Amino acid sequence: FVQAQTTTGTVSGFVSDPGGASIAEAAVKLTNKGTGLVLTVGSNDSGNYVFPLVQPGAYELAVEKSGFQRYVRSFTLEVTQQARIDVQLTVGQVSESVTVSAGAVLLESDTSNLGQV
Predict the structure, then answer these.
(1) 92 and 71 Cβ atoms separated by less than 8 Å
(2) What percent of the chain lies above the pLDDT cut of 90?
(3) Cβ(67)–Cβ(21) under 8 Å?
(4) Residue 82, Cβ neighbours under 10 Å: how many?
């Protein structure tokens, strides 16, 4: 039995308002900065979103919902990484945006796997 090796990772998270309540149907867009590939999902009724089978590389995550400021964060997804990016939207107009340019290291809190890059 030979197990296949995979290089893809996962990007997931939780979208909430300033009070911590979940935000359903927020537009979550993941853009690969190297290829220009854009993936889009909506947060579910619980405020969760997931992008499975994402190729490693530099990405920009953007989240929008009417009545809230647009959220933007850049990050690098490593081989087989399961990145969790929780987003707290700020009340305001979508034309305004909150850009996170320096953030904490992406933690893989959804798995106990160990690996190296």
Answers:
(1) no
(2) 73
(3) no
(4) 20
pLDDT digits (tens, 9 = 90+) for 48-57: 999 999 999 9
Query: Which one is predicted more confidently, 104 or 2?
Result: 2
Mean per-residue pLDDT for 41-64?
98
Please give the pLDDT value at position 107: 53
CA distance 51 to 69: 22
75: buried, middle or exposed (CB in 10 Å: 19+, 13-18, 0-12)?
A: middle
DSSP-assigned states of every residue in 89-101: PPBS-TTSEEEE-
- pTM for this structure? 0.80
Q: What is the pLDDT of residue 102?
A: 56
Q: Is 62:54 a contact under the CB 8 Å cutoff?
A: no
Question: Beta partners for 49?
Answer: 13
Q: Residues of 35-55 as b/e, b for ≥16 C-beta within 10 angstroms? A: eeeeeebebeeebbbbbeebe
CA-wise closest residue to 39 among 47, 48, 51:
51
